[in-house]
Amino acid sequence: FVEPMGDITFSDKRHLFPLSSENTVYTPGHALPPTIRFRGWNIKIVVCYDLRFPVWTRNQPDNLYDLLIVPSNWPISRVKPYKTLLSARAIENQIYTVGCNRTGVDKYGDYTTGMSSIFDNLGEDIKETRRNGHIYALLDLTNLKEGRERFPAYRSSDHFSIDLTPAR
Predict the structure, then answer these.
(1) Helix then strand then coil, % of the chain, to nearest 5
(2) What CATH number does residue 150 fall under?
(3) Which domain holds residue 55?
(4) Containing H/E element for 90?
(5) CA–CA dist 63, 42 (Å, integer)
(6) Taking CA 156 as the corner, what is the angle to CA 153 and CA 161, rounded to the nearest 5 degrees?
(7) Which pLDDT tens digit goes with each residue over 35-86?
(8) Is residue 8 in a domain?
């Protein structure tokens, strides 16, 4: 995450995708995704396959975030799980989620336009598409916080710790 003044925050991918042999090229991250504070928002970034692991993105009362950004590489053959998981993470964490998916073709599949999405805290896809294919949505932090106060489910979340020992 690069801020306008040049400050950079890194988020290492924890869960390496087994079907593409990422584990032979990359080392998994060994820290929870950092919370980035930017223009009044608390933001987390997880990468692609990390989206499948809800505990990895779980909102905690003592470390509440508002927006999850997920740069992704999901082929059209898995569009339903991709969008379902983005929606689920938005609902369970009472956040906005932005799934930024690639386009093109490789040996693992086709990556068509239209798979990137923006979900609100109720799990609704709120993106709009412009003529040039770019998507956008207006994210309302005040509305998000008011929704959390009306239904503060995040306060009931279980406290837990994550073992960051490398998986075998």
Answers:
(1) 30, 25, 50
(2) 3.60.110.10
(3) 18-156
(4) helix 79-93
(5) 9
(6) 120
(7) 999 999 999 999 999 999 999 999 887 889 999 999 999 999 999 999 999 9
(8) no
